Amino acid sequence: MQIDQSPADYIKSQIRTVPDWPQPGVMFRDITPLLKDPRTLRLLIEVFVHRYMQTELKYVAGIDARGFILGSILAHELNAGFIPIRKKGKLPYQTVSEEYELEYGSAAVEIHADACDAGDKVLLIDDLVATGGTMLAGKKLLEKLGADVVEGAAIVDLPELGGSRLLREAGLPLFLVCSFDGH
């Protein structure tokens, strides 16, 4: 990291762009280099810890699968519990489900029916915000259980896909470390 570089700029510089994956024309933003380097991972987690260390969060909810990585570390650092939000059919106990639209069809995510209680303050986290469908479904799931979703957080925003706008319009405040223009 250069002396005059902000943490957000450094984190953005460490994200790998993979052209034409998973399909032609898509510029995939790969966060695995952030996870690979222990100092970069520490800096990334510290950015989130600094933002939320004064909040009274009871839980951090992470969205399958990269949100599990970030969310569990962050929950530990903030002395909060962790709630996994999984793809449908992956949780072993009674669940609550929420469907959301994809570009071609729909999908669903679930949480355990006893994941949290009414009034619990929850941070929702994932690796990136693209169309916003998964994070919006996660917000709705938590709210079905009565949780107070204090904010949605992600490393990357892809603003031209409209997800961050959709989430804000749905009443979810967002914290996004960096953004990339272009798919």
UniProtKB/TrEMBL annotation:
Residue span(s) of domain Phosphoribosyltransferase: 55-159
Catalytic activity: AMP + diphosphate = 5-phospho-alpha-D-ribose 1-diphosphate + adenine
GO BP term (any one): purine ribonucleoside salvage
Organism domain of life: Bacteria
Pathway(s) annotated for this protein in UniProt: Purine metabolism; AMP biosynthesis via salvage pathway; AMP from adenine: step 1/1
Gene Ontology terms for molecular function: adenine phosphoribosyltransferase activity
Entry-linked InterPro entries: Ade_phspho_trans, Adenine_PRTase, PRTase-like, PRTase_dom
Subcellular localization: Cytoplasm
Zinc listed as a keyword: no
EC number of this enzyme: 2.4.2.7
One Gene Ontology cellular component annotation held by this UniProt entry: cytosol
Keyword Glycosyltransferase: yes
A Pfam family per the record: Pribosyltran
Keywords tagged on the record: Cytoplasm, Glycosyltransferase, Purine salvage, Transferase
Transmembrane segments: none
Gene3D superfamilies found in the cross-reference section: 3.40.50.2020
Known partners and oligomeric status: Homodimer.
NCBIfam families assigned to the protein according to its UniProt record, in alphabetical order: apt (TIGR01090), PRK02304.1-3 (NF002634), PRK02304.1-5 (NF002636)
Family per record: Belongs to the purine/pyrimidine phosphoribosyltransferase family.
Physiological role: Catalyzes a salvage reaction resulting in the formation of AMP, that is energically less costly than de novo synthesis.
Protein name from the UniProt record: Adenine phosphoribosyltransferase
Gene this protein is translated from: apt
